[in-house]
Specification:
The structure holds two protein chains of two kinds. Chain A is α+β, with helices and mostly antiparallel strands. Helices cover 49% and strands 18% of the residues of chain A. In chain A, the strands form six sheets. Chain A has a seven-stranded mixed sheet with strand order 17-29-28-27-18-25-26, sandwiched between helices. A six-stranded antiparallel sheet of chain A has the order 9-8-10-16-11-14, with no helix packed on it. Classes of the chains: A alpha+beta, B mainly alpha.
Chain lengths: 791, 58
């Protein structure tokens, strides 16, 4: 156990190299993986913030010692539109990478405030944003950002700041409404209590009326300020002639409120102000919980989307300079370092280089590009830096085309007819018709009681339970989903998920882990492979190769003179011996067999198979889906062989390979045209249009930000078993919503005739209303259980 | 029962005060982040601990 802990970096949790530096924290020497992490850990210790290591729930991010000087951030053209002038100086909000838990926010707050000139810091772990207020006369922004980066939190320019501010304002408004509802409702209940306790009717009429007016006074802001979202929702639903849930809720609240006011004015026997306010409070709380769960999910995903590089290296006559991507023009020459994202579509210059275009195409292998070839924004430069001439920028890039395809597909998505809305519409109309008929009949028979009886009809059939039926179930189901590790982003996600009969799966990153792993290592002479593995690991680490992680292990010797040969492999010296690691032709002059060979250039000593393994639970998840009568199919951008072997491994008979995003979307459309309800499960940008076009879609948490934005649900864990579980929960929640609606309707239908005959006593009406709502809420709470369906 | 005439306005005044205080807190951003502050308490408890220099073993 101890060895396992020691094998990883104390700060970032990555694998340790051979001669790992160590730092004393709280009297214990801790090994760190690199100088960057060491410096960060040392600074944290010296600043007295070592508590961070106890508080954190996740490892820190690896610290890049050479994170840059951020001098460009001091430039006016970069700051314009991002920095706000305040009386104390300036303020900026940056999005940072690597903020993984609340302890990071804690650390950032304390670390930055110690910088001279920084006046205020607010780090939010939920949104990944850091607000920094500083005095430009005392410190440049770049110094603050260097401190941030030196702790492993790389800052990015935050985009869509206005939308974020709007979101925050919206959330605060909802909290304010909820607070007013809670304070007002409890007070209104207190006053109503006085009226209820007067069971013998001993209270004098002026006192009773005084209490009623006070209750009225306290409930009015609750109904009209806190209940405003419902009333505004009703107004918009009526304007579109589609009365739905909000109409139902607002009608119930306003009915109870207006009926009480009328009874207060005419000195009637009973008032229901307390029912109106409690109702607003409960519904608002249910709505708050549901929205917070969904917003928190989308805020976290939005942060990722905005963390795209907003700066690029432009190569001009005067050398390299960092400029905002927005300032790039067609014809500019830009440079992308190894591991950097290509900022714009363009043409490769100088030398061949390899690029990871998996986000755009779904192809897992990096592709080699020759000078003159087209490069796409969003692909990642591998192995060596590359220069390109910009040909298309901004909204013309392939990436933006895909983004637009997402928006278009989303707009054309088939809408699920909402069961609850349909029921609500008819019910509200029927209710008013019934009340009008009752009023008319009583007017003929006994005009003196007509108003009173019509009011009783409206109150007793006040659709409280009906309007609670759906929100209560949705709030519980969303909470349960989140605990399961499935974030629901779209409001309709659950309803659509319940009706799915076909599931389309992407291969790379969805059915497979999406990162290469060493699956087989054989030495040529049949001896121990461990020493060769160590040499290979040393070469890979020295080269900073993306598949280095597959070799990561302890006690690796240091490699010298490491040089990457793009598209072929790595050469270098380990313990004074020259080695080559790469394709067979490069490492030992053999024929390429798809495996990775270690050799000295002529003779091979070991053969490694690197593959992207299938997720361990993929086969079980697919079996579970099939048991639920959901047919699985694989759609992948990868080659036929790779797709076929994965399809066989997970037990799927139907698969299509070499699918472009447009092909995938067409496949979905064809299925939908045949009446199928399609669930799409994917992770890459290439899946995004399909995710948006399917009836309902799920994205993997470690997938592309654009895929998240296009998806209805995001799987936060890595287990695919969550998929059948989520479908089961969705089906269960639909069943419970139906039960709730049936119960509420039945109650109202039974109570209505009694009220219409004039037999209902107001106290009984209030009791029935409460009991019916309780039954519905209790039924909805059954969704809180996670059923171990697929475990 | 005349005491009610005094007590109820007092309770209403308190209610108004509570609502104003709550709205002020919301507007000041007190509810922007509901996760990090829980750690602040833990952190501040550790303040009186010996300064970092003394913690280093020679």
């Amino acid at each position: 156990m101890n060895a396992a802990v020691d094998a990883t970096c104390f700060h970032c949790g990555e694998a340790l190299p051979a001669q790992a530096p160590s730092v004393d924290i709280d009297g214990t020497p801790r090994a760190v993986c690199c100088q960057g992490c060491g410096a960060a850990a040392q600074w944290i210790r010296d600043a007295g913030l070592a508590d961070y290591y106890r508080l954190r729930a996740a490892d820190g991010a690896r610290v890049d010692l050479d994170a840059g000087d951020f001098l460009t951030w001091d430039r006016a053209d970069v700051q314009s539109g991002h920095v706000v002038a305040t009386p104390q100086g300036s303020e900026i909000t940056v999005v940072v990478e690597g903020m993984r838990c609340a302890a990071c926010a804690w650390l950032i707050d304390r670390a930055l405030v110690r910088e001279p000139g920084v006046t205020e810091v607010g780090a939010n772990a939920v949104t990944g944003r850091v607000r920094v207020a500083w005095d430009p006369a005392r410190t440049p922004l770049s110094r603050v950002l260097v401190r941030l980066a030196s702790l492993g939190y790389r800052p990015h320019l935050a985009q869509g700041e206005a939308a974020e501010r709007e979101r925050r304002r919206e959330r605060n408004r909802l909290i304010a409404r909820l607070g007013v509802a809670a304070l007002g409702a409890t007070q209104a209940m207190m006053f109503a209590e006085a009226l209820y306790l007067d069971t013998a009717g001993e209270m004098s009429l002026p006192t009773r009326d005084f209490f009623r007016w006070i209750t009225f006074l306290v409930s009015t802001p609750v109904v009209f300020f806190s209940g405003w979202p419902f009333i505004a929702g009703m107004a918009s639903e009526l304007r579109h002639r589609r009365p739905g849930m909000d109409t139902l809720v607002a009608t119930s609240v306003l009915l109870a409120y207006v009926a009480s006011l009328v009874e207060t004015l005419r000195g009637g026997p009973h008032v229901w102000f307390d029912a109106a306010v409690m109702f607003v409070l409960f519904l608002l709380a249910a709505r708050f919980l549901e929205q917070m769960a969904r917003r928190q999910a989308s805020a976290r995903l939005d942060t990722l989307a905005r963390a795209q590089p907003a700066l690029a290296w432009r190569v001009g006559a005067g050398g390299r300079e960092q400029v905002p991507v927005a300032a790039l023009a067609v014809g500019d020459v830009v440079e992308a370092g190894a591991g950097d994202v290509v900022p714009a579509d363009g043409e490769l210059l100088d030398a061949p280089a390899s690029f990871d275009e998996s986000l755009l195409t779904g192809e897992s292998e990096p592709v080699a590009r020759q000078p003159g070839d087209a490069l796409y924004a969003g692909s990642v430069c591998r192995e060596s830096a590359a220069r390109l001439r910009v040909q298309r920028i901004g909204s013309d890039t392939r990436l933006s085309q895909l983004t637009r395809a997402v928006e278009k597909a989303q707009a054309q998505r088939p809408r699920v007819a909402r069961l609850a809305d349909a029921v609500a519409t008819r019910f509200v109309l029927a209710l008013f018709v019934a009340a009008a008929v009752v009023f008319a009949v009583w007017w003929q028979v006994q005009p003196g009681r007509a108003f009173e009886v019509a009011l009783a009809v409206l109150v007793v059939s006040c659709p409280c339970a009906l309007s609670l039926a759906v929100p209560a179930a949705l709030a519980t189901a969303h909470g349960t989903l989140a605990r399961m590790g499935v974030l629901a982003l779209g409001a309709d996600a659950l309803e659509s998920l319940a009706r799915v009969d076909t599931v389309l799966l992407d291969k790379t990153g969805t059915l497979t882990l999406g990162r290469p792993q060493l699956v087989e290592a054989v030495s040529v002479d049949g001896g121990d492979v461990a020493p060769w593995l160590a040499v290979a690991a040393a070469l890979e680490q020295g080269a900073g190769h993306p598949i280095a992680a597959a070799f990561a292990q302890r006690g690796v010797p240091a490699a010298e003179r490491v040089r990457a040969h793009p598209g072929e492999g790595v050469a270098g010296e380990v313990d004074g011996r020259a080695w080559r690691l790469g394709r067979a032709g490069f490492a030992m002059r053999g024929d390429d067999d798809g495996a990775l060979w270690l050799g000295d250039g002529t003779v091979g000593v070991a053969r490694f198979t690197i593959a992207d393994p299938v997720r361990p639970d993929a086969a079980r998840a697919i079996a579970a889906l099939r048991a639920m009568a959901i047919a699985p199919r694989i759609l992948s951008g990868d080659g036929a062989d790779a797709v076929a072997s994965v399809a066989q491994a997970v037990g799927v008979a139907q698969f299509q390979a070499r699918q472009s995003p447009e092909d995938k979307l067409a496949a979905v459309r064809a299925l939908q045209a045949n009446g199928h309800r399609v669930l799409m499960l994917g992770d890459g940008i290439n899946d995004a249009p399909v995710l948006a076009g399917a009836d309902v879609s799920m994205a993997m948490a470690d997938g592309a930000p654009l895929a998240h934005r296009a998806a209805d649900l995001v799987l936060t864990g890595s287990s695919l078993l969550r998929v059948p579980q989520a479908v089961a929960l969705a089906r269960r929640s639909q069943r419970i919503i139906r039960q709730n609606l049936a119960w509420a309707l039945a109650y109202n239908l039974v109570a209505l005739p009694f009220a219409a005959m004039g037999w209902v006593n107001p106290g009984l009406a209030a009791l029935g209303m409460a009991a019916s709502s309780l039954v519905v809420t209790a039924n909805a709470l059954r969704l809180g259980r996670i059923e171990g369906h697929a475990e | 029962m005349n005491i009610l005439l005094a007590l109820i306005p007092v309770s209403l005044a308190l209610l108004v005060l509570a609502i104003l205080a709550f709205l002020w807190a919301v507007r000041r951003g007190q509810f922007d982040d509901l996760d990090t502050p829980s750690l602040d308490i833990l952190g501040d408890d550790e303040r009186p601990a010996p300064p970092p220099e003394k913690r280093d073993a020679p």
